[in-house]
Amino acid sequence: MTRKDSQAAQERPAEEPQGKPSRKGKKHKKQQQQQQQEAEQQPEQQGQEQPHGHPYGVQPWGNFYLTGVPEIRTAGLGLLSPLPDELLLDLLFNLPAADLARLGLASKALYCFAHTSELWKALAIQELEGDFAWCGSWRETYLQHKARGYVAHSHRPLAVQGFYSDFLHQPWFCANVEIQLRWLEVDNIERRAGLTPEQFRAQYEAANRPVVLTDAMDDWPALTKWSRQYLTAALAGRPVIVGNMPWRFSAYMAYCDSGAAQDEMPLYLFDKAFAAASPQLAGDYRVPAVFSEDLFEVLGEEGRPDYRWLIVGPARSGSSFHVDPNATCAWNACVSGRKKWIMFPPGTPPPGVYPSPDGADVAAPISLFEWLLNFYEEARESKHPPLETITGPGELLYVPRGWWHMVLNLDEAVAVTQNFVSSVGLPAVLAFLKQGSEGLVSGCCLQDRSSLHDRFVAALQQRRPQVLAALAAKQAAAAQQREAEHRLCQLFKQPGQQQQQGAAALPDQPAAAAAAAAAAGGSNGFCFGFQVAGSEPAVEQQAGAAAAAGGGFSFGFDIPAAAEGGEGQGQQDSAAAEAAGSEAEQQQQQQQQQGGKGKGKRGRQHKSEVTEEEAVCAAAAAAAGEVAKKQKHAGGKRRH
């Protein structure tokens, strides 16, 4: 079960899920029926789920083969039974509340579908628009606010037998599964204190590595002031943003106390306007010195993309896997509670997470617990396991650009997070914004996204021109270095490659092949040739002429054919080549000694008169001597 999503998704501690499926046997069946009858007689308790199983009796399909209870889905859905459960639920999202309630009376199977919590959650969010008090469950909340004459908490859930659905059972299971200790054992992200801004940039920001800073929040008043009571008073009189919905903070706290128990994806408070609406909260924290440079500031508060949020959530809430927007970096400061982090480096999507080619959409498990149950072990056993840690009160995590990360609140948690762009990350941000895609650029109005790059560059040119100048100089130097490396590669690789290609194309015309290879070397190249005794001498001459025409130079030397001239002739040729090599070495040493005898400017000038061609030819002659020695040595071995 997947969906395109990068929003928050978790749950709170709850009862244990249903244990082993029931087995055949009269005594066990009688006890099971007795428990279900007792459950039907108990009213719904303020949104709390029954401890022994799904409140409406939904079971996974695997239990069908163990319980022996016939399935009722096919008969109960009738003509709708061929539809997958996921598609059928998508259709039900389009029904108004009255029709949804009537549909639940048609059959036991449709009763299970019509009482799915996500359907009533969508109705409450859409129609009540955040102006409501939490009443214990999404269905109860909606009915108490919208249904005339409805008696509060009068609903008694019916535990249906024989209805199997993995799709409907898994949200309940994920909402009730306990946090496993193996998910919390790994802690492999560095923790540092006392870093200067220069040290942080060199060791972590430039390296694009995450780190936990344990002393960055030491001077924050928020660490001692931000209790639930303090936040309720500070945020009174204005709505906060919860799941893209405005909601009173006090109502959200009531939801955290009970409603998160039911939701596979509990609502998460992500308020980007808290600082402007509650200046006292903005004064309770300070941006750490290592993050003091934020170049988006040149756009002003109204012109820059969204960048800071107050985050509040119950235990088991959090954010599913995502990459921070606009190629920015971020820091997340934990004020209270504990947060579990799992991170994957850029270009390494987590198992089970599938981004679209352009990165605009992400298909992922619908909740954090679904990912942890199905993919955590696979991630830990992979060649590149994730980085993990737990941050507590007073600890701040640096999230580098491009890193995939998820967050699970282990307790009710309060945090502040900010995205920023410094001189180190400016090239990546500008490259990202230059695309101008409305689906990729985020944090501002749709009509402003395509122009964000140009507006940002213009503002930098006006207010921080030295930053752009330094960036241009750095890019020019990098371009020159790449060009130099390219020329060096062409100098040594291309002539040899062209020679091989030419020889393969014209195996019976060695002279033409060598000339073409030398000519292909282009300017500033050279040709290195061997003349084997008995071969065509025009090869070397034509290659040299082609190299000279190309602006380069060539050199070569003869290698005697020892095998063809007999043993005596091979020895004579080897001796002659060895003598020539020794004579060339002596001449080169004499030239170097004469050049070294000059003093001052005159001596240096005399030394520079030795041309590059002469030096290379001398080296070639020395190499010929080495070849002759090897041949002589090989000939001696054959004689013995």
TrEMBL record:
Region entry Disordered, spans: 1-57, 560-615, 621-640
Comp. bias intervals (Basic and acidic residues):
1-18
Q: Which residue intervals define the domain F-box in the entry?
A: 77-123
Question: Where is this chain compositionally biased, Low complexity type?
Answer: 32-55, 570-594
What PROSITE patterns does this protein's entry cite?
A: FBOX, JMJC
Per the record, the similarity remark reads: Belongs to the JARID1 histone demethylase family.
Q: Name it.
A: JmjC domain-containing protein
Q: Which organism is it from?
A: Tetradesmus obliquus (Green alga)
Instruction: Give the lineage.
Output: Eukaryota, Viridiplantae, Chlorophyta, core chlorophytes, Chlorophyceae
